[in-house]
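Technical note accompanying the year-one report. For the benefit of new consortium partners, we illustrate the data format agreed upon in the data management plan: each record pairs a sequence with a structure-token string. No post-processing was applied to the example shown here.
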Amino acid sequence: MATARQHIDMDKAKKTAEQVFGLLGGAVISAMIYLGDRLGLYQALQGAEPLTSEELARKTGLHERWIREWLQGQAAAGLLDYTGEGRFALSPEGALVLADENSPLFLGGGFSALPQQMAVVERLPESFKSGLGLPYDAFGPEGARGIERLFAPWFRSQLVPVALPKLEGVAPKLQAGAKVADVGCGAGIALIEMAKAFPQSAFHGYDISKYALARAQDNKAKAGVRNVTFHDAASDALPGDASFDFITTFDCIHDMAHPQVVIRAIRQAIQPQGTWLIADIHGQGSFEENLSNNPLAPLMYGFSVLSCMSSALSEPGGAGLGTLGFPEPVARRMVTEVGFSRFKSHDFENPLNAYYEVRP
């Protein structure tokens, strides 16, 4: 043992300990962000003059002592501004990230399923032994809500005005009246935004998550749109009749146990002159490239074990692509194998996603 210790770089060991302790701090602060979002604290601070813990407690109906500790922790983490004399403020920039759900920079929703995500950790040792992951609905209703809130800001602010006009011929088709499918539609926000913008078109959403589909139906009713239909893909699959003018898949191919089966079904469902818009997690073509060029790689590999790869291995023979498993080279190969011949990358200025315009 003494000999082994002689070869240890203690400076490196200390730096590793500091790094691990910092990661533990990030986990704890994430829990505080969850509470701030869940309790409406960021929304209460948004646009307000600097508040004391007493004032914020009165405004939210919560207990002052707990509010005070939360405020101090958020200021220590750099998420709130401390203005002196016991007063705290959420900056306009911070509000875009933590309070304003219509902002394309809003990330508060990404924390809303944090307790459920952490809870599945206790089930994952068995997955490491058996190789079989957990189904997408393992996180329960809050999992579907969390995914919705994470991606909805981009759908609401960027999809119709920014992305669709850059796809060749798609917007005119939608204005005239087209048949559209969103495969892996989740809570339906993307479809609902398109349906509101293009009332002449018919929109169909397909998903296997019962929790997401329940939210989709509720979101449809709240939006008052009538040109959207949601389908449980397990019993009402995408028809292979080449009838769809436009098909979308948003951040779901890498989650699928059998993505090639779905990609083949999309090829059979789309018209000869149709367009398929793929949005998937932006990753590099190899682990080495992600290691050196992808600052989000640690987060993405963690999400993969907790959710994405787990879902993609939740059935026997699952592909197990994982969060970073569908980069452009893989996407090009898989769509080409089923008969798509045109592939174009787009940059819609979303740090999380890559976008591909695919045609037969």
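Partners are asked to follow this layout when depositing records. The radius of gyration is 23 Å.
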